[in-house]
Amino acid sequence: MRPVAMTEPSLGASASRGAAVTAGAQIFRIGIQLAGIVILARLVTPYDYGMITMILAIIGIGEVLRDFGLAQASIQARTITRGQQSNLFWTNTGVGLVLTIVTIGLSWAIAAFYGTPGLQPLTVVLASTFLLRGMTTQFMAHMARNLRFGRLSTAETVGQLVALGVAIVMALMGFGAWALVAQQVAQAAFTLVIMVMLAQWLPGWIDRHATIRPFLRYGVGVAGSQLLSYASRNVDSVVIGARFGATPLGLYNRAFQLMMLPLSQINAPATRVAVPVLSRLQDERKRFAQFILLGQFATLLLVGSITAICISQAYPVILVFLGPEWLDAAPLFQILAVGGIFQAVSYASYWVFLAKGLTKQNFYYALVTRPIMIGVILLGSMWGVEGVAWAYSLSLAVFWPVSLIWLSRISDAPAREMFLTGLGGVAITAAATAAAWGSSLLIPEGLSLVRIAVGIVVTLATIALIALIFPPVRRQMVGLLELRRHFRRSTAASDSTADPLADAPLPADVTRDPAA
């Protein structure tokens, strides 16, 4: 059966529209997540948060195994048949089921490791998310592959909103840590249901004639590097929970999550838009470089602005959003925010690894750098929770240029330009942070909202001033406004000979079965 020919808009138009739709949805999702952080921090104690973090730090590794890189493999592939996509669905679902059973079996061992018996039943219920998310993986990949970002964002947003409502109701009823468990399970379940309704695709039964070996080979590299990355990102939580207990871990977790809120909500949609588009431009070096540099700058501009406010106004931010009982998390918040900007700088390197199919090299890179990061974090724990935070942040700062050197040896990616763009983003963030911090010294400590408001205004004004003074920054901002022009393709057939990308297809849809 041959793929059905479809009339599609240009890649540039779809990319820019997808970016706009996704960005709009992410702003709304950030609002939901921020509301959840603010409300639940006043209903659930640091100890309860620490309990859930203890579990997730260990069992979260199953999320990497559950996906096994097959979502990105499906998105990155030039073509995919219906049989292959069905086989990928059943593979993700089967792995999710196995992980659910294994996690239930390990629940007693996890509780014993931390010396906290109450973790065992919480772990059993959380285990169900592996199966639910395993079933969701290929529905998400199908919509991303076909650039249906609006539907994808709708499913994720509604699932997040319903889950937050469930958590708030249970927290008000005094369920504590169980409210946080219910939030995880409800989000996984409702997101699955809505994605099934919106995807306009249903998997068939296993097709023994449709091989998925190329996808598995791609996925091995992605999964291997993600496992190492996950271990390095979560060893801090495991160490703090085991050495210092649930309450310090709860404080660290809220500081970390508040720092990660803008990062995760910006990186996820940026990667969702960037990887499919870059995959189609991987043989067009000039346009590939244009897209990735503009994408990197846009990400840094957003993350840098938020990071500047987080570092300069950490104490009023914690006081307003989490409440006075969480103020001990403020210095951790500042330290981790330093690492956050370097993590954002590194996102573009990850896009290159995925878009160019360099998953094996990405695994080798992770195999070298992530164990070092784990060792540095273990060493940092000798200086307490703040030592762990500094070790995490400094590791991210050091490994960013290493990733670019690595890429320069194995690809034609514009590594030098990516370094200069990233360095400029870090410098802009540092200047905005200093200006916002200086402005806060003029305002009494009791006026937290005023301090935050002034910090936001000063941060944005500083960035605007830098753009006026320095032409390269101004050109990058103009480039963002004209992103669609960089990837515009003529719809007229006569123009296709002048532009080699003019008739380049969008990501191919799967072979359609009329009966589906």
Automatic annotation (TrEMBL):
Residues 494-509 have a biased composition (Low complexity). Keywords: Cell membrane, Membrane, Transmembrane, Transmembrane helix. The chain crosses the membrane at residues 21-43, 89-115, 121-141, 161-181, 187-206, 288-315, 335-354, 363-383, 389-407, 419-443, 449-470. It comes from the Bacteria. Residues 494-516 are annotated as: Disordered. Its main location: membrane. It is found in: Cell membrane. InterPro entries: Poly_Biosynth_Transport. It is a multi-pass membrane protein. Belongs to the polysaccharide synthase family. This is Lipopolysaccharide biosynthesis protein. It comes from Microbacterium pumilum.
